Amino acid sequence: MIPNEPIGRFRFMNEQRVNLDGFATPEPELGLVAFNGINDPAPSLIINAGRIVEMDGRGESDFDSIDEFIARHGIDLSVAQEAMAIDSTEFARRLVDPNHSRKSIVQLASGMTPAKLAEILSLLTAAELVIAMTKMRARRTPSNQAHVTNRSDDPLLLAADAATAAAFGFRELETTVPVAADAPSNAVAVSIGAAVGSPGVLVQCSVEEAAELALGMRGLVSYAETVSLYGTEQIFIDGDDTPWSKAFLTSAYASRGIKMRVTSGGGSEALMGGAEKCSMFYLEARCVALARAIGAQGVQNGGIDSASVAGAVPGGVRSLMAENVMVMLRNLEACTGNDALMSESDVRRTSRTHPIFIGGSDFINSGFGSIQRYDNMFGPSQWNSEDIDDFLAMQRDWGVDGGLRTANEVEVARLRRRATEAVSAVYSWLGLGDFSQEWAEQAIDAAGSKDISSGDLMLPLTAARTIMETNVTMLDVIAALAENGFDLEAQRCLDMLKARVAGDYLQTSAIFDEEMNVLSLVTDPNEYSGPGTGYQPTPARQAQIDTIRQQRSVADLLVEQKSFGNKNIFATGSAEVSYDPRDVVIGVSPATGKDIWVTLSGLSVADAITEILAGLEEEGCVGRIVRINDSLDLGMIGLTAARLSGSGVSVGLQAKGTALIHRRDLAPLANLELYSVAPTITRELYRMMGINAGRHAKGATPEPVRNPYSDEAIEARYHTKVVSLVAIERNCVTKEVPEVMELRKS
Amino acid sequence: MNLQIGFSGKNVSEVTVESIRRGDITLDDVRIHPSTLSHQADVARENGNPQLAENFLRAAELTGLPDETVLRYYDALRPGRSTAQDLLQIADDLAAIGAVKNSELFRQAADVYARRGLTAK
């Protein structure tokens, strides 16, 4: 015990990463509560002569600007009476009942007030939310969005990383700036990089509302998302907007044929000190109702910047997912958070994302940090480039389409080179700046901006100013690409501009596939109605999900083993029974000297045998190597060897490295010592095994050897290899009698 | 409905990398046409979202306005920027060019902003 300190068990627990997270006692006065706030109203709706005169307990003369906009634009009066009269539990059940279509549900939901939808969704358990999400999201095919940013707004790195993100399958890329004035340069660099990586990747640059729209008007970005809504009037005004200005902004984007969605998320009002004693979930219900009312096609929510505020209170993480489902109920595109990092704990952040990952949404992450945490200028994301392989493995584990795919290293290297070349050419052609070859080479190789030492930190700012002052548009970028031989990329950038003319990607949940087809609520509607319906990956897409670059086949392993082939170990003839009391047989498995040359620890089979021989020699015994050809079972190998052994003691060794000491009078599965965890058996241990076998042979007392213990996931690392190695051993099994083997010193 | 006609009236099939290179193309050639937005409004309504349809119809009215004007009108609607009178003036200007839905939006704003203290002081 340490005075004034908790006991060791608690000191140890306190050190775990989850305890870096803040956990709040619910404070309803401050809005620090997920559901059931003090001022959350009971649902109500009174319509008089075709006009809403009371909504959620508030008369129209008391409507604030948010109530007013929702009441005048957001509620479908033709179904409102019917919708509000439905029992909330009954409606909640429909969300998970395949017999009620998505279409019928969204139609009724359009007549419901914020408090009504909040009441309904607070009834769903976590598992029910997963089903509701599967059923209610607008687009059939799930997708994902990436952040592409870096600390220095380095255009070459942005382009290389944008191309990389596209290669990994992201269909929307979101950039932002540490230096606000750099924004136009970032927009150009990411748009070029995206075009290098894939056709049809949407690009946005998150900056102040008016500046973002101006970039869109010049064609430098292809969608917008940072159009924030808040659930209380005061915080809305603090955000320098009103529902009317946001409605107008929404129309302004559509008037230029540019896709946009709004951003909200529970906890932001509490974080900004203006929750008005309402719960996070109720305030978010107001935001989502407003999003529909102003005519936005979609919402990014699920906490976003305030996700950790929601995460700090009981039920908060569930409320974040319920926010996303609410967006789906309002028949809007759902870009489902999992954006700002909400926990220092890998377990908690995975737990927060996982139900949405398996439920499937329009965009699982509203910003997967495709770059490293330190380069994410939104702040570290819930998922980052550190986690891409984890995410791909999770897709494979569950057979789930999370929107990503494995990218081939050689191909990514090629794309990164192409992206830096394209940006260099365009910047130079348009007089935006010149990049050194050294800078470009570093950007191609870089895992992050810390790997780049030769960048010019002033270049992005100069480039951005020139873009604004000389009125560079996407047309100029396209011309510059074409003039410099980047015809493919010029065409892809042009295709994104031309998509604005048709306007199909303004519809709910629209993305482009790689053939520039629009996938949206209209063209790719989600019609899930129970098992066997809804989204099923095509065989080609399933193959992408299943085939990660780390997977190995038996054939791969054979080739790898062959590369370690050793001519110095070979059979010389059949083995006889010995009567020499110093004789200890080392029984080796059928693949020894044929197909398996390296044990799981990385030590060669020859070296393992050499150590055992040396150990025997130390004890004055003579080792004899005998290959047991008719069994791969280590017990049988050891026992067969012991029966040939003059001393009656043997060492059995499978080529993968597992070993034991056997004696001829024991049952096959019994043994004197077993070294079962092959990946952890070192040279020293094989020698120790030889020594102990010698002592057993002489009747002396061996020093027991403990199997080395590791807290690492040894089985996860090696079990698949074991299956393959055992299969190789099995192929080597013959009816041949045991053979003596010679091991020459190399 | 021909979704191929840009705001300028040019068919997008004429917009090629080559024609851009020659300098024959302006942003108006790759801007959406108001009739296309009207069509998209119909699609949105058929797909259960009359509010999205309304947005597209407001947008259709804004296609004819220069970028600067659109940005200026947006700014006018931000809190504390305009008096109710300023907002009503814009509503009149919008009505004069046939932008009736946007005009109505400004009229409503003038009313609500005055009531909620969101007008310029």
Automatic annotation (TrEMBL), chain A:
InterPro entries, A to Z: B12-dep_deHydtase_bsu (IPR010254), Cbl-dep_enz_cat (IPR016176), Dehydtase/Dehydtase_re (IPR003208), Diol/glycerol_deHase_lsu_sf (IPR036999), Diol/glycerol_deHydtase_lsu (IPR003206)
Molecular function terms from GO: cobalamin binding; hydro-lyase activity
Gene3D superfamilies assigned to the protein according to its UniProt record, in alphabetical order: B12-dependent dehydatase associated subunit, Diol/glycerol dehydratase, large subunit
Residues in Diol/glycerol dehydratase large subunit domain copies: 9-554
Name under which the protein is recorded: Unannotated protein
UniProtKB/TrEMBL annotation, chain B:
Classification via InterPro entries: Ppandiol/glycerol_DeHydtase_su, Prodiol/glycerol_DeHase__sf_su
SUPFAM superfamilies xrefs: Diol dehydratase, gamma subunit (SSF47148)
Pfam family for this entry, one: Dehydratase_SU
Protein name as annotated: Unannotated protein
Organism from which the protein derives: freshwater metagenome
Source organism phylogeny: unclassified sequences, metagenomes, ecological metagenomes
